[in-house]
Amino acid sequence: MNPDVFISYSRENQQEVIKLVEYLREQGVAVWMDESDIHGATMWTKEIVEAIRASSVFILAISRHSTGSKNVVKELALASEREKIILPIYLEQCDIPETMEYQLAGIQNIALFTLDKGKAYEFVHQTIRRLGVGQAAEESQALDQAEPAPSAGHGTGVGLGHMAPPKAKRDAGKWIGIAAAVVVLAAAGFFLSQGGDEAPATPASAPATTATPAPATDGSIRIAVLPFENLSTDDNQTKWADLISQEIIGSLAPMNGVTPIVWSSVNKYRGEQKDIDQITRDLNVQRILDGRVVAQGSQIEVSFNLTDTQTKSFIWNHKESGMQNDFFKLRNAIVAKVTSTLKPNEATKSTTEVVPTQNIEAYKLYRKARDLWSTRGEAEMKQSIELFKQAIEMDPGFVEAYCGLGDAYAMMIPYGYVPPDQVRETIQLAEDVFFKAIKINPNYSGAYPAMGWLECMAKHRYEKALEHFDEALKHNPNNIQALMWKAITCRSIKRSNEAIQLSSRATELDPNNHVAYMLLSLDYASDAQYENAEKAAKKSVSLKPDYGMGQNALFNVLAMQENKKEELKKHIESLEALSNKDWNIEQTIFIYHYYFGTEESFSNAADYLKKKAELTNYDLKGYPLYFFCTGQKEMGYKFLEEGVKNGSISLMGAHRYNIEWNLIKDEERYKSIYGDNY
Fold first, then answer.
1. Does the structure show a pLDDT above 50 at 351?
2. Strands 31-32 and 229-230: what pairing?
3. Which neighbouring-strand residues pair with 306?
4. Closest to 144 in 3D by CA, of 200, 209, 95
5. In whole angstroms, what is the distance from residue 210 CA to residue 280 CA?
6. Coil, helix or strand for 93?
7. What's CA 119's distance to the chain center, in Å?
8. Which domains are seen in the chain, by residue range?
9. At what angle do helices 583-596 and 548-559 cross, to 10 degrees?
10. How far is residue 588's CA from residue 575's CA, in Å, rounded to a whole number?
11. How far apart are CA 249 and CA 262, in angstroms?
């Protein structure tokens, strides 16, 4: 019987290869291998030649030993000459010698050494199945509903990642990338690719189970730039991998017709076995860019893949290298490659040639500060301020750092991290740095969202706020802060439909953003769409259970529905059980007991809130509802009016979607505070 598979290997790797062969044979694959140690002899036998000629697939077990074997080189040359399907399998990290370069040029491969052995063997088996060889052919046909097997040609290889693995530590992670990790194991459409770095893969038809991304609301191409893997021997070099991923996202964002998923959402897939279907479902993307970074000394080498999520095929593989000091030049080259594929008819100069700073150390501080800022935690927010300041000291012309500092000052106010008597000072600090940023670069979109935020939240000048948001979106239609804060402004002036559209767009850009879903919940609630509001609030809570504003949004939407009282009670019980509750959660518990608790439970909640305020920096003057609920109405109005005037309390029309204000929302004095926007 003719063999299905011929496997070429070095005697030094015999024991490892035998385990793979035994597994394949157990699955019904006829494998021919030299089990008599012929490779240790000088003679190349007729038996080996005939076995190669009779086989359908030629597996090359690559190691530093096999690449130095003359017999292995001969076997590869014969397999290529006979136009066999060549499947290179890396047993370890090593380079390809000149004697093999021609036969392996452009052929894709499997980095077996990066995978769990049990999964790796099944991966190879399924690869062979999908090629339709031997006893597995009938199973493959049944699996693919009689899909014809692709024909093999000279230099044809399996489409899994057609660059030799870069030099790296052995446990560097799943080198083969997202497509290779699931294309077979998930019974996905398999593909072959012709040689050459730029040659597109030709996919087989995808099965019915393949996740199909829905189009973005604006019709753009949605792409997830996953955290690049650090394959450097130094774990500290992870920063370069992160910086490259973040910069690619930032450079793609201003492009019309392209929607890159925000970093906070893609970061959750760091270090995971990448499942294309899962990522597609989670992020609703048509393209995925993943990559690997090797930083050694002063040099950076980046290899990356662009994948079609529907076919699970690589559109291309590419590699770029450069010096660390030329980091942004390297970024520009990568972005240009991506944009030339996504939007080939559009100029990419504006998206790729912006260099935020020449000081790489300042840029690293900025990125760290942004990550801290995005958590919205008090300690993290304050730490981000110090890091932004350090970055500015290193580079006084670093516009992004100024904007980050302004954003931090601005966001300290609504989260209650600034005492009421310091709000005006903080607003001025924020505005000063924004004006500096605009003076440096008036076309940078990041300078405008927080300016609009301050106009809306602190000054209640809504039309002026909208002008700032629109200016930001003019320069970058995917500016998520502008989208979210413009939604808040629209909700504040009773433009609920527009607010919902904007918040929905924000969740498209950042599907794992708990803040975006919280805002979407409020927008739906303001339009009395309680079912949708509840779904969005629960999504926010699921993403970040300790996020107080998300918990508060869920409380309110449950409280607004008569049939949700039992669920509401359980919700509050879960909040009370939390050991570390922020002020928004404490306030939520307090309000629940006012409206739904007993006289005793409310009294206890009020005492607890007052005592906690005394033990912390929180000032109850910034929470006038405490005074309204405890019967101190005049005091409540006093602090409410003072807060609105000094900017520490925002007018967002909360009475339209928030049960908390029911006790006074119909009073004329309260209505007068809102004026026309009541």
1. no
2. unpaired
3. 289, 316
4. 209
5. 9
6. coil
7. 26
8. 5-158 (3.40.50.10140), 221-352 (3.40.50.10610)
9. 20
10. 9
11. 7
d(CA 374, CA 556): 24
Q: Quickly list H helices, 344-398.
A: 349-352, 360-375, 378-394
What single-letter DSSP state applies at residue 90?
E
pTM over 0.85: no
Write out the two tokens for 650. Answer: 């925002």
Token pair of 91 as six digits = 């047993």
- b/e 611-622 (16+ beta carbons within 10 angstroms → b): eebeeeebebbb
Q: Where are the beta strands (DSSP E) in 17-167?
A: 31-32, 57-62, 85-90, 110-111, 157-158
User: How many Å apart are CA 364 and CA 360, to the nearest integer?
Assistant: 6
Q: What is the pLDDT of residues 613-629, one digit of tens each?
A: 888 777 888 899 999 99
Helices 70-81 and 46-54: crossing angle in degrees, nearest 10, is: 40
Taken as a whole, the chain contains a residue count of 678
Closest CA to 412 of 648, 582, 148: 648
pLDDT by residue (tens digit) across 408-438?
998 888 777 888 788 889 989 999 999 999 8
What's the farthest any 2 CA atoms get from each other in the chain?
102
**Tell me: the pLDDT tens digits for 198-213?**
333 333 333 334 456 6
Task: Kindly give the residue spans of alpha helices, DSSP state H, lying in 294-377.
Answer: 327-342, 349-352, 360-375
Half-sphere exposure of 94 (CA within 13 A, CB side): 19
d(CA 563, CA 506): 30
pLDDT at residue 593, as a whole number: 96
DSSP, res 200: P
CB 622 within 8 A of CB 416: yes
Q: Tokens 């200016």 label which residue?
A: 471
What is the distance of C-alpha 571 from the center of its chain?
29
Q: What are the structure tokens assigned to 356, written together?
A: 């935020």
Q: Using DSSP bridges, classify how beta strands 157-158 and 191-193 pair: parallel, antiparallel or unpaired.
A: antiparallel
